[in-house]
Amino acid sequence: MPKTAVAEFDGVTKEYRVGLTKRHFLRALAGVSLRIDPGEVFGVVGPNRAGKTTLVKILLSLCHATAGRVERFGQPAAARASLGRVGYMHENQAFPRYLSATELLDYYGALAKVPAAELGRRVPALLERVGLADRSRESVSRFSKGMVTRLGLAQALVNNPDLLVLDEPTEGLDLPGKQLVHDVIQEQRRRGQTVVLVSHVVVDIEKLCDRVAVLRDGTLAFVGTVEKLAADPATGRRQPLEAALKRWYQPQQGKTT
């Protein structure tokens, strides 16, 4: 019996009302269908304004599809109860800067309904894991960009999520910080938990992802393994992934994917 998908998009379209009178529409996604399975690292790539952020927002119930079906853990995405099983690391953290690292993780853990006793054990371990144990009582206002990014990773893990969504997680990190992110992603996979990785860093996509979705102009241009993505269409031989992505990113005039 096939496992229930962690996330499933079926013919998903999203249109935003724009302009002063809100009479015009901007289509961010058009008929996107894909499935994210348990235990895989699923990459989402594409040029700017391809629809990646909108796809993630719909997955996280931060906005709703105009048309189509979206499920999370086998339930409609509108059923917010399953959000307790999701961890999300935003590309640009906007944490309350007056809180300490410990206070911030306690706060987000409480929002995710993690029991207080479990939080008491988990928060110190997470701060140790991301290299902030010695700064746990300091105000976030004193943290560098890289430290805030590390704290964001800890925040995304505080509820031990079955689905971890990472949006440009290595942005602003030094080499040890980038390796930390890689290690966390691989640990999640080993535990059978799922990761969605949104990134422009080709080496991260190539090294970490089991499958990749390429969005282009709001449509799904490709979904499949990294090996298939990198295959030269003429020879079938593997080419550098960066070169392959440039080809997939090209607009297809008069063609709907």
Quickly describe the structure.
With 257 residues, the protein is of the alpha/beta class.
Polypeptide structure, described:
The model is unreliable at 253-257 (pLDDT under 50). The radius of gyration is 19 Å and the shape is globular. The chain is built from 8 helices and 10 strands. It is an alpha/beta fold and 257 residues long. Helix 2 (101-111) packs across helix 3 (116-129). It has one domain (7-249): P-loop containing nucleotide triphosphate hydrolases (Rossmann fold, 3-Layer(aba) Sandwich). Strands 6-7-8-3-9-10 form a 6-stranded mixed sheet. Strands 2-1-4-5 form a 4-stranded antiparallel sheet, with helices on one face.
